[in-house]
Amino acid sequence: MAADDERTAELDRPKVVALIRGHLAEELEIDSSSIDETTRFREDLDADSLDLYTLVQELEDTYGIRMSDEEAAKIRTVGQAVDFVLATVGPGARPSSTATPGPEE
After folding, report:
1. Would you tell me which of 9, 20, 21, 100 could form a disulfide with 32, CB atoms 3.0–4.6 Å apart?
2. Is 48 among the catalytic positions?
3. Pick from 102, 73, 71: which is nearest to 88 by CA?
4. What is the pTM of this model?
5. What whole-number distance in Å separates Cα of residue 18 and Cα of residue 14?
6. What does the pLDDT look like over 17-67, one tens digit per residue?
7. pLDDT tens, position by position, 63-93
């Protein structure tokens, strides 16, 4: 039952920020504490198109959303990516059941 509870935990801004920070930190091999909502992908993190593509894939897989190339091109900061996820999925929505929850501690 605990696994079901984790999968159905309501989606909120801090959880989406944490997922994006974790993904970028791993992908770019940087400290996640250097990433916040104002962080710009290209200018601040020197992320290339492949890095951004993998982030989009992660968001699509985790939250069951689709992001067009045009939409992805408009997203330049972590905060804008979070806004897109929350607007697309909706407030109080739940992550995809295929998502693997990360450690809570």
Report:
1. 21
2. yes
3. 71
4. 0.77
5. 6
6. 999 999 999 999 999 999 999 999 999 999 999 999 999 999 999 999 999
7. 999 999 999 999 999 999 999 999 998 755 5
Q: What's the confidence (pLDDT) of residue 11?
A: 80
Hey, what are 2's tokens? 């605990």
End-to-end CA distance of the chain: 19
Judged on CB neighbours under 10 Å (0-12, 13-18, 19+), 27 is middle
What residues contact 96, with CB distance under 8 A and at least 6 apart? 61, 62, 63, 64
Report which of 85, 90, 86 is spatially closest to residue 72, judged by C-alpha positions.
85
Of 12, 36, 46, 48, which is the active-site residue?
48
- Which tokens in the block code for residue 38? 């104002």
